[in-house]
User: Fold this.
Amino acid sequence: MSTRLNQAQPYALALFRIVVGLLFACHGAASLFGVLGGAMGGGSIPAGTWPGWYAAVIQLIGGSLVVLGLGTRFAALVASGSMAYAYFKVHQPEALFPLENGGEPSAVYCWAFLLLVFTGPGALALDRLFTTRTTAKGDQDRAPEPRSPVAA
Assistant:
């Protein structure tokens, strides 16, 4: 049983990455364009408004990059940081725990994206296409390095 689960792990991680990234991008689209119910119940955030508009841009772009698996670790790091900022600057001053201050989504997104920073994108990521091609091409152009008798 655990062998099968281990084999499915990269695909489960990819599904996690895609779902979390898509939900995050939807928050950004709602805030920037007023779609999907808009920002805070309707409408959009005026351009350049600090910090809401910048957070929405990070959500839309970062979420889209995470969905595609393109620059996943960097995009997830920026997204995680923006959610940590949102939690500590907006929610935490209201009360200590997320249940009390309405900061559950910020806290969950922060930790979910931090997990992706350390695990990587999993399967089905565009990052893998570019690194595979680059590595394969680089290996053809380069002569094999001589092995040291110490490095075994």
Observations:
- The chain has a mean pLDDT of 86.
- The first helix runs from residue 2 to 33.
- The two ends are 34 Å apart (CA to CA).
- Residues 33 and 44 are 6 Å apart (CA to CA).
